[in-house]
Amino acid sequence: MDHDLTTLPNGLRVITETMPSVRSISVGCWVDTGSRDETPTEAGCSHFLEHLLFKGSETLSAREIAEAFDAVGARSNAFTSKEYTCFWAQLRDEDLPMGVGLLGEMLQRPAFRPDEIVSEANVVLEEINMNEDDPSDVAHDQFARTLWGGHALARPVLGTRESITTMSRETIEGFWQRRYHAPSVVVAAAGHLDHDEVVAMVEEHFGNWDGEVVDHDFHDAEIAPAVGIVTRDTEQAHLVIGGEGIKRGDERRFASGILNHVLGSGMSSRLFREIREVRGLAYAVYSFRMPYADSGAYGIYAGTTPRQAPDVLSLVRDELAVVIEGGITAEELDRAKGNMQGSLALSMEDTSSRMVGLGRHELTGVQHLSLDETVARIDAVTLDDVHEVARTVLTGPRVLGAVGPFAAADLEPYLT
User: Fold this and answer.
1) Hey, what's the torsion of the CAs at 115, 120, 125, 130, to 10 degrees?
2) Residue 375's closest CA among 409, 342, 406, 353?
């Protein structure tokens, strides 16, 4: 990316990309903290904070924050992952000073009013209820918990009903005080902007923030074959099978992306065509990747009727074996490269996508690459590169997360 980066005296980083042809700006405050950084009593605290910081500071109420953004037609929100939290706004270029000021107030001086903690806990509990009512979400949660076991990545982002219900103001404020520090924050912005002007705004509103760089409990995961199942009398079985994948900064990530596309990302993928188009065994079937700092995952999801689940799992297992043995074809390689390159170009058409790329890469330490540099990396991937990733990744221990009218023993044979 053609970006500018400045580190303030307090350690906070400001990274921007100018897009002269637009009139809007997307700005995000990226905090180097997610669910993997929580203790058992803090389970779900990162996501809870995502909600609570919008409830206001000692001088601003939640209504005043919402009305300030609404008054200029801005969009604002936040999201939490296992490794980071981002608070963002998208607004007109002339409204950026207001947006930066509001974000600065929210992050540095949250009020943590007891009544708002109680009301927002109910909101988070409803979010957990909504998640648990979606069996595909539950299957993915079961897959992650079963894959990573006691590793920090196994912790659910939302927390649990028990942890949210019993979480005190002291726990929440203590987590914020421990994890929210200037050196562990990146302010990223993309759009119609001047880098020096953005730096001046951020320094005005964040310059007095202090603290130390936060740490993380990084260590290798110990993966063992297992089935994690929620037994329900459902009309459709929800299945997620996979194993440990490559880590976030691995240079093989481009080959892994191509392998993922050929296996199950898109309507021309092998699994989509065989399971849905040819055999009609599922409406939804796809593959995915989840790269993190010290581990990663690959997975394949399928939703099918319970009586067809054995056929679907057998087809997935057989297709993985074919790729492990023979790799992919030259035609598939070219098609996957074209898809990745085209999708990347389209994703960079808006300020929000560019801000997300800037902030996430800077916070996680992944190398910043321009569009041309990324295209070149994709172009350089060979059939042998993809085959090597398939042999390395797909042959490891497998786990299965599922929701349906099964016992774990019914599904264990499909792990090998």
Assistant:
1) 150
2) 342
DSSP letter at 55 equals G
What pTM was computed for the model?
Answer: 0.94
Report DSSP letters for 265-319, one per residue.
SSTTSHHIIIIIIIT---S-EEEEEEE-SS-EEEEEEEEE-GGGHHHHHHHHHHH
Write down all domains in the chain, each with its CATH number in brackets.
Answer: 4-206 (3.30.830.10), 226-415 (3.30.830.10)
Question: Which member of 17, 50, 332, 362 is catalytic?
Answer: 50
Tell me how far the alpha carbon of residue 316 is from its chain's centroid: 25
Q: Which two tokens stand for residue 338?
A: 């074209």
Closest C-alpha among 83, 24, 95 to residue 353? 24
Query: Mind listing the pLDDT tens digit of every residue in the chain (416 residues)?
Result: 589 999 999 999 999 999 999 999 999 999 999 999 999 999 999 999 999 999 999 899 999 999 999 999 999 999 999 999 999 999 999 999 999 999 999 999 999 999 999 999 999 999 999 999 999 999 999 999 999 999 999 999 999 999 999 999 999 999 999 999 999 999 999 999 999 999 999 999 999 999 999 999 999 999 999 999 999 998 999 999 999 999 998 999 999 999 999 999 989 999 999 999 999 999 999 999 999 999 999 999 999 999 999 999 999 999 999 999 999 999 999 999 999 999 999 988 899 999 999 999 999 999 999 989 999 999 999 999 999 999 999 999 999 999 999 999 999 999 98
Could you give the angle at which helices 114-133 and 135-148 cross, rounded to 10 degrees? 100
**Structural contact between residues 128 and 105, judged by C-beta atoms closer than 8 angstroms:** no
- Contact (Cβ atoms closer than 8 angstroms) between residue 47 and residue 34: no
Among 345, 349, 342, CA closest to 24: 349
Residue type, 136: S
DSSP state of 93: G
**Is 173 assigned a catalytic role?**
no
